[in-house]
Amino acid sequence: MRTSTTLLRLLAVLLSLSLVAIACGSDDDADTGSSSDTTADTGGDDEPADTGGDDEPADDGNMADDSMDPVKIGLIAQDEELLAFPEVRAVAQAYVDYANAELGGIDGHPVQLEVCGAGDAPEGHIGCAQEFVNADDVHIVINGGFLSNSAASNEVLTGGGIPVLTLGNDFVDYLTPGVFTVDPGLPGLAQVFFVYAAENRGVTTATLFIADDPAFEPFIPVLEAIAGINGITVTETLKLGFEPDLTGPVSAADTANEGWLFVLADGAQCTAAAQAVATVGYEGQNFANDLCMSQDTIESGALDGWAGPVVSSAPTVDGPDVDEINRILETYGGDDVQTAGLAGWALGSTQVAAEVLAAAGGGDATRESALDALGTYSSTDVLGMADSVSCPGPGAWSGACNQAPLMVTVENSTFTAPDPFTQLDFTVLDFLLEG
User: Fold this and answer.
1) What is the pLDDT of residues 2-37, one digit of tens each?
2) Are 210 and 236 in contact (CB under 8 A)?
3) Where along the chain do its domains lie?
4) 391 burial class (0-12, 13-18, 19+ CB within 10 angstroms)?
C-alpha cells in the first residue's frame, strides 16, 4: 500500500496522459471533431414540447415566456463512441423542459440547453469547449467529459472565463479555479464507500478490480491509500479488460478477502464482471462504483446484493425526492432518460446551473456574475441530493462543493437506500496533498 503517494505526482501523470491523448489520438479511432445540437424547449401556451412520457405537468400556469430571450446553459455531453453516457444529455434536457413548463424558466426567460456532443478522446471535448468560449451568450457550462477529457476541456473553458460544473473524476477538477463539481468524484465516493464497507459491512481486507485503461491507472494508489486510512487493506489489485467473459481474471482473485470492489468504466463491463463473480461463487461483500451500476445492469438482476455510492437519490426507490424526480423524467424525458448511471449528477448539475444563472442576473447574467454566483452557491433543495449543497469546497479542495453521497444496495433489480446521505468532508483526504 502506497500511502505516501502525493497528489502532485498524480496530477503530473494525469496531465501527461491528457497531453499524450491529445497528441496521439485514440486507439479506437475516436472522432476528433464534435457535434453540436441546440436542444431547447422554450415552452408554449398549451403544453410542453415532446415529453416522451404519459404524465401531464403538475402546473401548466407558470410557463416561461417564449417571447423573451433565452438564458443558455452549455453542456458538453460524452455520448458518442465506446465510453458514452447518453443519460446526461437526456436528463439535463428533461430538467430544462420541466423548468420552462413549471418553474417559469429563469425570471420568465426560457432556459435553453446548448449541447455539444463529443466522443471518448480529448480532441472533441476541446473543440466543444472552444465552441462555448466563442459563444458570447453562454455563461456557464456543464462538462460531462470523463477523466482526461474533462481536464483538457476545462482548461479551455476557464481560460475563456466560463465557470464550469464538471464531472469530478479527475484530480485537476478539484484544484482549478472556476471549476466546481456537485459530484464527489472517485476519491470522494471512495472515502464514503470505505467508511461504509468498514463500519457497516465489517470489511477489513479487499480485492480491488479496476478497468484496464491508462486513465484509471493513477487512481490505484489513491484507492489503496483511502482504504488504508479507513482500516481496510487492499491485498491485491486486478485489472479487468472489456471482453464479454471476465471469468479468467476474476477467478484469480482471493476469495478469502471480505470484500471485492469493482471500479469499472460502464454497465457492459460491470455485467461481465458480475457474471464472472457468480461463476466463481464468491460469497463475500461486492461493491461497485456509480459508472458500473447502469440502469440496464441493475434491471438485469446481475448486481442483486451489491452496494455502492452514488451522488443522488435519483436511482433509488425509497430516497427523498424520488417520486418528484421520477415524475419529471417520465413527463419530460425521452428514450435515453434513465435514473441510474450519471443521471443523478446530470439532474442536480442542471438545476444548480439554472439557479446560478438566476442569481447571476438571469437575462442580464455575464460570465463574471455567473462565476461569482457559483463560487458562493448554497442550496437546501437540489433534487435528489443532500439537505445542504454549497460551493466552494473546504480547504484546498475548492472545486469539491460540499455535499453528501448516498450508499445504495441493489435488491430485486432495483436500487434501495437503506442508509441516509453521508456528509463528506474532503479535508479527510488532505493526506493526499502531503509530501
Assistant:
1) 333 334 444 444 434 443 343 343 344 434 344 555
2) no
3) 23-183+323-403, 186-310+407-433
4) buried
* Fold match, 23-183+323-403 / 186-310+407-433: yes
- Quote the CA–CA distance of 152 and 166 in Å, as a whole number: 12
**78 pLDDT tier (thresholds 50, 70, 90):** very high
Residue 372: how many other CB atoms lie within 10 Å: 15
Task: Report yes or no: 178 and 199 within 8 Å, Cβ to Cβ.
Answer: no
DSSP of 185-211: HHHHHHHHHHHHHHHHH---EEEEEEE
For residue 409, give the C-alpha cell. 444496495
86-135, pLDDT tens digit by residue?
999 999 999 999 999 999 999 999 999 999 999 989 999 999 999 999 99
Question: 186-310+407-433: which CATH number, 3.30.470.20, 3.40.50.720, 3.30.2090.10, 3.40.50.2300?
Answer: 3.40.50.2300
For range 241-267, the mean pLDDT: 96
Nearest to 15 by CA among 155, 131, 141, 157: 155
- The pTM for the full model equals 0.83
Residues linked to residue 211 through DSSP beta bridges, in sequence order: 240
> How far is the CA of 304 from the CAs of 87, 278, 286, 292, in angstroms?
22, 11, 10, 13
Give the H/E segment covering residue 161: none
Domain 23-183+323-403, what architecture? 3-Layer(aba) Sandwich (3.40)
